[in-house]
Amino acid sequence: MFKIQTLNNISRIGLERLPAGQYNVASDQTDPDALLVRSADLHKIEIPASVRAIGRAGAGTNNIPVAEMSKRGVPVFNAPGANANAVKELVLAGMLLSSRNIPDALAFVSTLPEHADAHHAMEAEKKRFVGSELSGKTLGVVGLGAIGVRVANAARALGMRVFGFDPHMTVDGAWQLSADVVKAGSLNELYAASDFISFHVPLNDATRGVFKAESLQVARRGVVLLNFARDGIIDAGALKAGLDDGTIGRYVTDFPSKEQAVHPRVIGLPHLGASTAEAEENCAVMVVDQLRDFLENGNVLNS
Ligand code: MLT
Q1: What is the interface pTM, i.e. ipTM, of the complex?
Q2: In the predicted model, is pLDDT for residue 303 greater than 70?
Q3: What's the pLDDT tens digit per position in 146-157?
Q4: What's the CA-to-centroid distance between 21 and ligand 1, angstroms?
């Protein structure tokens, strides 16, 4: 019997793939063979010596001490691509929220007094929320993995010009990317060309602060930055300076700090990129299947 400890809620559809006669799945195991997590920060807990594998029902593995686990010979399985469609859809929403001033318009409507002339007040005030269209604007996509490729292709379908940058693009990604996406030769070329810039890279030493003070010098004034990747991808100091002086017109983020959450140029969401029933299911299924294959057959795929 394999003992699996779940440290977060894992989609039932995924857990049902662990046969009851063979697997004991609980949140309070002693001596588990494997851990199954979503956002639990494993840097902050002692991982039992019994653990032989870790499954992360999501793409990012920055909440897991991967290097330390590698030294212990413990594979970490994740689910790259399983939530890519969910993130792509929220990025599109983020661009629309920003370009059509939707948060400000919603706030206005919610404060309308209850009287017969509400309609008149809305018609009178709506000019404050005049937006602009995405069609014809330029989107820069930093990182052309499973999510970035989808975002780039979807933006093309909306009539946007798209620049992409990724020095480590996979052959699969290259096949899937629309031929109309322009490959930027450098980040600065992408930054200089873009009205919107969306980041789709994991957080690591190479990507931390990939948008920084110097990037502000080349970016278009009023650029909209979208961060559905990780906090830290955009240098905090550069971000604050750009937001305060308007170089950055809007920052749409899944990781707002307290200060950013109340900034008039910030649209902050509580890490909702992958929060759809479908994505949670896809991630759980992908990671559970890998865990089983490892525990039962010793196979290590995608760790
Ligand atoms: C991911 O890394 O898969 C997404 O950010 C969602 C999550 O952390 O669960």
Answers
A1: 0.93
A2: no
A3: 999 999 999 999
A4: 31
Strand-by-strand arrangement of the 34-37 sheet: 23-26, 2-6, 34-37, 53-56, 76-77
Cα 161 to Cα 32: distance, rounded to the nearest angstrom: 50
**Taking 80 as the threshold, does the pLDDT of residue 302 lie above it?**
no
Q: What is the mean pLDDT of residues 279-297?
A: 98
User: Could you tell me if 128 and 114 lie in one domain?
Assistant: yes
Residues 100, 153, single domain; the answer is yes
Q: What is the pTM of this model?
A: 0.95
Site residues for ligand 1, CB cut-off 6 Å: 38-39, 58-60, 83, 273-274
Catalytic residue check, 230: yes
Residue 17 lies in domain: 2-82+277-297
Compute φ and ψ for 253, nearest 5 degrees.
-135, 145
Same domain, residue pair 238 and 190: yes
Q: Looking at the structure, do residues 259 and 120 belong to the same domain, yes or no? A: yes
168 in catalytic set: no
Cα 2 to Cα 261: distance, rounded to the nearest angstrom: 43
In ligand 1, the atom with minimum distance to the C-alpha of 60 is 2
Same domain, 281 and 135: no
10 dihedral zone (left: phi>0; alpha: psi -120 to 50; beta): beta
